[in-house]
Write a structure and sequence with these properties.
single chain, 322 residues, alpha+beta, Uridine Diphospho-n-acetylenolpyruvylglucosamine Reductase, domain 2, Uridine Diphospho-n-acetylenolpyruvylglucosamine Reductase, domain 3, Uridine Diphospho-n-acetylenolpyruvylglucosamine Reductase, domain 1, 5-stranded mixed sheet, 5-stranded antiparallel sheet, 7 helices, 20 strands, disordered N terminus
Length: 322
């Protein structure tokens, strides 16, 4: 049998604009600043942005662009993404307002991919449901949080996941039960190219005051130690171990407050790079990332692995729902 050649990905094709627009209700946007769609407030022009408000729109758009060999990235809240200063000559599929909805059945919640983890955690707390107190102040979409198994304060979202629903890069609908995925620290095991459309979470009813107090304590701890008010992508590096978190390592190396161009290592937390005056560039951030990695390697023999997703143009599809 003759081998089927791999699909070759081309650059953004303007000829597909009418066909893509016919599949979605929201008007397409072109040459959108990456800084306007990410919490880092950094990034060049994104050639074409397609906003999808339903799972079916997402399926149809991905299937068409995949057939045509078009490079695609799927964007949720843009909370863990650094976009290249040169921008991206690719299709950006953004999850819209229709994919922020929440469906409730007792203590089981189906939360769609673009919903804010922080907002949903607050809603769950207000309604007296426990299990997401750790998420107070985490600025991720539900889709991105599940894809990377977000966590804090010794807890991870995987502990509450019952089912993950998603779409592959060719438009194929899939779902995974919790025990079908090899969860570990900052890793869900979802296939490369999978886009999370919704997550079924099992929460537990409890005492509202106790739950609210725990959320407030966690949020206060984050505000005291992390620069939540400044443009950033949150933690830059994965923690090498619970006993030696990246922030502690970088603080010991004297990285707090280090500045390159318009970007800086936070004075509050050495594992956060911030864009305090919104004048930083991706080049500045990447230089700081490399400096941190070099110092950790040279002075501590530690290899720091970036947690933030770095988007530069390339000839393949990719998504993290961030």
């Amino acid at each position: 049998m003759q081998a089927v050649p791999p699909l070759q990905f081309n650059s953004f094709s303007e000829s597909l604009i009418p066909a893509v627009q016919a599949l979605v209700a929201v008007p397409l946007r072109f040459d959108v600043s990456g800084s306007s769609l990410t919490t880092f407030a950094i990034g060049g022009a994104l050639r074409g942005v397609v906003t999808v408000d339903t799972v079916q729109e997402l399926v149809h758009v991905l299937a068409l662009l995949h057939r045509e060999g078009q490079p695609v990235r799927v964007l949720g809240n843009g909370s863990n993404v650094l976009v290249s200063d040169a921008g991206l000559n690719e299709w950006i599929v953004k999850l819209g307002a229709g994919l922020k909805r929440i469906e409730v059945d007792g203590s089981r919640f189906e939360v769609f991919g673009a919903a804010s983890l922080m907002s949903f955690a607050r809603r769950a707390s207000d309604d007296g449901f426990s299990g997401l107190e750790f998420a107070a102040g985490i600025p991720a979409s539900i889709g991105g949080a599940v894809f990377m198994n977000a966590g804090a304060h010794g807890a991870e979202i995987s502990s509450r996941v019952a089912l993950v629903r998603g779409v592959m890069e060719d438009g194929l609908l899939c779902e995974w039960k919790r025990d079908e995925l090899p969860w570990r620290y900052r890793f869900s095991g979802l296939p490369v190219g999978a886009m999370v459309t919704s997550v079924v979470l099992d929460l537990v009813q409890g005492d509202k005051e106790t739950i609210a107090r725990k959320c407030s304590e966690n949020l206060a701890a984050r505000r005291a130690t992390q620069p939540l008010a400044l443009p950033s992508a949150g933690s830059v590096f994965k923690n090498p171990s619970p006993q030696r978190p990246a922030g502690m390592i970088l603080e010991a190396l004297g990285m707090k407050g280090h500045v390159i161009g318009g970007a800086a290592v936070s004075d509050l937390h050495a594992n956060w790079i911030v864009n305090p005056k919104r004048e930083g560039t991706a080049r500045d951030v990447l230089a700081l990332i490399e400096l941190c990695r070099q110092k950790a390697r040279a002075e501590g023999g530690i290899e720091l692995e970036p947690e933030v997703k770095i988007w530069t143009s390339r000839a393949s599809t990719n998504s993290d729902n961030k």
